[in-house]
Amino acid sequence: MITRHDDGTRAIEVTVRIEADSQAVWKAITHPEEIERWFPLRARGEAREGGLIEVSWGDEGWWGSTLTLPEEGRHARFVDESSVEHGGPVLYMDYHLETDGGATVVRFVHSGFGPEDRWDDYLDALDAGWSYFFRNLKVYLEHHAGTPRTMLHDRPATRGSRGEIFTTLLEAVGLEGGELDGAAVGDSVALTLAGEPADGVLEARAPNRTMGFRLPGLEQSLLFLEIESAGDTGKVGVWLSTYGASPSTRDRLERTRDAVSAAVGAR
């Protein structure tokens, strides 16, 4: 959710309840080896006050932020100054943790964005992305805690409007254009992956931008599809998170990745 503050600046806020103790959640958001099990392809750095934590999605290099600990175990803040030298603002990523019974509620706030129109598209993309990543964090800790992630991914080039590409993505996983319109996070969805039926659970959806599914029958793996295009050209991110998957599951997911990539690449 995008919110606007009294001074005109904007922020993204996401709240998720995770059936895990606060120590496990704290480690997952502050330790690089845990961060890369739900967020980027790679993470490195030091989980300490003032430590630099860097993350990478591959070809784009590394993106760094400084970890500060206003309240150890309950509030972690990452300070991102990467755009300052180009005249951009300092950005903040705050994780607030609260214990609720045996679960942990995480409230995440990504703030510092200006009121200018130039931020609109970027904020929409970040809002869609963070909504999915926190579902990935939840699935990781509830189903795969302590297991390293293997990411099967591709970023094929494509063309067309976001609406047209989104329709192609829906068809590539066996869904019709309006089939997700009334669906909510947590709803069951019947998919077709690599030509075979598959049960899915909707984990995130931003119309004409992203969709994410948990795959219970494929060892609780995750499928995330995102449109990175601007205008009529760009790329689609095809991301499959697996945790100790069997060879048969991995083969099915690799074929799914290849089929989706072929579908959008043929546009």
Write up what this structure looks like.
The chain has helices at 22-30, 32-35, 120-143, 162-172, 247-265, and strands at residues 2-4, 10-18, 42-45, 52-56, 62-71, 75-80, 91-100, 103-113, 150-154, 157-159, 188-193, 196-206, 210-215, 221-227, 233-242. It is α+β, with helices and mostly antiparallel strands. The protein is 25% helix and 40% strand. The chain is globular and about 50 Å long. 29% of the residues are buried. Helix 4 (162-172) runs antiparallel to helix 5 (247-265). The protein is built from 5 helices and 15 strands.
In a few lines, what is going on in this structure?
This protein has two domains: 2-143, 2-Layer Sandwich (Alpha-D-Glucose-1,6-Bisphosphate, Chain A, domain 4); 150-265, START domain (Alpha-D-Glucose-1,6-Bisphosphate, Chain A, domain 4), CATH 3.30.530.20. It is built from five helices and 15 strands. The chain has helices at 22-30, 32-35, 120-143, 162-172, 247-265, and strands spanning 2-4, 10-18, 42-45, 52-56, 62-71, 75-80, 91-100, 103-113, 150-154, 157-159, 188-193, 196-206, 210-215, 221-227, 233-242.
Jot down its keywords.
267 residues; alpha+beta; Alpha-D-Glucose-1,6-Bisphosphate, Chain A, domain 4; 8-stranded antiparallel sheet; 15 strands; globular
Number of helices: 5
CATH topology of the largest domain: Alpha-D-Glucose-1,6-Bisphosphate, Chain A, domain 4
The largest sheet is: 8 strands, antiparallel
Approximate strand percentage: 35-45%
Radius of gyration: 18 Å
| Unreliable spans | none
Q: Can you tell me the CATH superfamily of the largest domain?
A: START domain
Name of the CATH first level of the largest domain: Alpha Beta
Mean pLDDT: 94
User: What is the molecular shape?
Assistant: globular
Instruction: Strand order, main sheet: write it out.
Output: 1-2-8-7-6-5-4-3
Q: Structural class per helix/strand content?
A: alpha+beta
Number of domains: 2
Q: How much helicity do the residues have?
A: 25-40%
CATH architecture level-2 label of the largest domain = 2-Layer Sandwich
**Amino-to-carboxy terminus distance:** 31 Å
SSE order, as H and E? EEHHEEEEEEHEEHEEEEEH
> How many strand segments?
15
